[in-house]
Design brief:
single chain, two-stranded antiparallel sheet
Amino acid sequence: MTTFKKTLLTAAAILPLVALSLPSHAVMDSYMEKALINVCKAAKSNSVLKLKSTTKYYRLKTKTVALGLVCNGDDVITFAESYGANKTAATLQKSIGRVSITDVASVQKLNVTF
Protein backbone atom coordinates (compact mmCIF):
# COMPACT_ATOMS: atom_id res chain seq x y z
CA MET A 1 0.00 0.00 0.00
CA THR A 2 1.34 3.39 -0.88
CA THR A 3 1.69 6.28 1.52
CA PHE A 4 -1.04 8.20 -0.28
CA LYS A 5 -3.51 5.34 0.14
CA LYS A 6 -2.62 4.97 3.83
CA THR A 7 -3.13 8.68 4.41
CA LEU A 8 -6.42 8.67 2.52
CA LEU A 9 -7.66 5.62 4.42
CA THR A 10 -6.68 7.14 7.78
CA ALA A 11 -8.38 10.41 6.93
CA ALA A 12 -11.53 8.57 5.83
CA ALA A 13 -11.59 6.69 9.14
CA ILE A 14 -10.95 9.73 11.35
CA LEU A 15 -13.21 12.26 9.60
CA PRO A 16 -16.55 10.79 10.81
CA LEU A 17 -15.24 10.62 14.38
CA VAL A 18 -14.18 14.26 14.28
CA ALA A 19 -17.53 15.30 12.82
CA LEU A 20 -19.43 13.50 15.58
CA SER A 21 -17.27 14.89 18.36
CA LEU A 22 -17.72 18.54 17.41
CA PRO A 23 -20.27 20.33 19.55
CA SER A 24 -23.45 21.21 17.76
CA HIS A 25 -24.71 24.65 18.67
CA ALA A 26 -28.00 25.80 17.30
CA VAL A 27 -27.41 29.32 16.11
CA MET A 28 -30.51 31.44 15.93
CA ASP A 29 -30.67 33.95 13.15
CA SER A 30 -31.62 37.53 13.91
CA TYR A 31 -35.06 37.23 12.28
CA MET A 32 -36.09 34.31 14.49
CA GLU A 33 -34.70 35.99 17.60
CA LYS A 34 -36.62 39.18 16.80
CA ALA A 35 -39.80 37.18 16.19
CA LEU A 36 -39.59 35.35 19.51
CA ILE A 37 -38.78 38.53 21.43
CA ASN A 38 -41.80 40.24 19.85
CA VAL A 39 -44.04 37.32 20.79
CA CYS A 40 -42.77 37.52 24.38
CA LYS A 41 -43.49 41.26 24.42
CA ALA A 42 -46.96 40.66 23.01
CA ALA A 43 -47.66 38.03 25.69
CA LYS A 44 -46.48 40.49 28.35
CA SER A 45 -48.75 43.27 27.00
CA ASN A 46 -52.01 41.56 28.11
CA SER A 47 -53.52 42.33 24.70
CA VAL A 48 -54.97 39.24 23.06
CA LEU A 49 -55.29 41.12 19.78
CA LYS A 50 -51.60 42.07 19.85
CA LEU A 51 -50.59 38.49 20.68
CA LYS A 52 -52.69 37.04 17.85
CA SER A 53 -51.51 39.60 15.31
CA THR A 54 -47.86 39.06 16.28
CA THR A 55 -48.08 35.28 15.99
CA LYS A 56 -49.97 35.62 12.70
CA TYR A 57 -47.37 38.08 11.35
CA TYR A 58 -44.53 35.66 12.06
CA ARG A 59 -46.63 32.67 10.93
CA LEU A 60 -46.52 30.93 14.28
CA LYS A 61 -49.27 28.81 15.78
CA THR A 62 -50.43 29.83 19.22
CA LYS A 63 -50.25 26.24 20.43
CA THR A 64 -46.64 25.93 19.26
CA VAL A 65 -45.77 29.17 21.06
CA ALA A 66 -47.51 28.05 24.24
CA LEU A 67 -45.74 24.69 24.29
CA GLY A 68 -42.28 25.70 23.14
CA LEU A 69 -41.44 29.34 23.82
CA VAL A 70 -39.37 30.31 26.86
CA CYS A 71 -39.18 33.99 27.83
CA ASN A 72 -36.53 35.00 30.37
CA GLY A 73 -36.24 31.45 31.68
CA ASP A 74 -39.98 30.84 32.15
CA ASP A 75 -42.45 29.26 29.79
CA VAL A 76 -44.48 31.93 28.00
CA ILE A 77 -47.64 31.33 30.05
CA THR A 78 -45.84 31.71 33.39
CA PHE A 79 -43.98 34.71 31.96
CA ALA A 80 -47.26 36.42 31.01
CA GLU A 81 -48.81 35.66 34.39
CA SER A 82 -45.79 37.07 36.22
CA TYR A 83 -46.40 40.41 34.51
CA GLY A 84 -50.13 40.32 35.29
CA ALA A 85 -51.08 39.58 31.68
CA ASN A 86 -53.87 37.18 32.56
CA LYS A 87 -55.78 37.60 29.28
CA THR A 88 -52.86 36.54 27.11
CA ALA A 89 -51.92 33.77 29.55
CA ALA A 90 -55.47 32.43 29.39
CA THR A 91 -55.45 32.57 25.58
CA LEU A 92 -52.19 30.65 25.45
CA GLN A 93 -53.49 28.13 27.98
CA LYS A 94 -56.68 27.60 25.95
CA SER A 95 -54.63 26.94 22.81
CA ILE A 96 -53.00 23.95 24.47
CA GLY A 97 -56.35 22.36 25.16
CA ARG A 98 -57.57 20.50 28.16
CA VAL A 99 -54.92 18.83 30.21
CA SER A 100 -55.80 16.81 33.24
CA ILE A 101 -53.33 15.24 35.58
CA THR A 102 -54.36 12.24 37.61
CA ASP A 103 -52.17 11.36 40.54
CA VAL A 104 -51.99 7.59 40.54
CA ALA A 105 -49.68 7.17 43.51
CA SER A 106 -51.02 9.66 45.98
CA VAL A 107 -48.59 10.58 48.70
CA GLN A 108 -49.95 11.38 52.12
CA LYS A 109 -48.76 14.76 53.32
CA LEU A 110 -47.77 15.25 56.90
CA ASN A 111 -48.15 18.56 58.68
CA VAL A 112 -45.74 19.24 61.50
CA THR A 113 -45.97 22.29 63.73
CA PHE A 114 -43.30 23.14 66.29
